[in-house]
Here is the input.
Amino acid sequence: MDVRTGFIALFCLIGLTCAEPVKYVDCGSATGKVATVNISPCPVQPCKLRKGESYSVNVTFSSAVESKTSTALVHGLIAGIPVPFPIPIEDGCKSGIQCPIQKQQKYNYVNALPVKTQYPAIKLVVEWELRDDDQKDLFCIRFPVQIVS
Ligand SMILES: *[C@@H]1O[C@H](CO)[C@@H](O)[C@H](O)[C@H]1NC(C)=O
Here is the structure.
């Protein structure tokens, strides 16, 4: 752990608000471009998601298209196999995005990732897509997480 990571971890441990950019892989953003992905709290990567808690996911992206709608689709990839990861609000237009989405505009997509107590305590990859009117991905990101008890 380097000094910066240590400092951020300490900052978050003492309960201050912390949104740390996480490392992600772009899995085919077609009609948009991702700038940053913030998950909070996530002092150490991969993010440790505690069962029964909820995490905030904030994806900053810009759109290359106009779209009246935006719909989120979240999967957990367990050993490469996609398993649906339900989120409370699938409508991107109710998740910090003012619709209709405009071309060349920057947006912050903000949503909650609740971790159910019945989830297994495993490492997995979360795949988060936001689809436009044509079912194309405004963004598609993947980030590793570890579910802990
Ligand atoms: C989301 O992230 C952006 C860029 O880091 C930031 O400007 C914005 O305030 C964040 N929004 C929320 C609700 O955390």
Notes: The chain is about 5% helix and 45% strand.
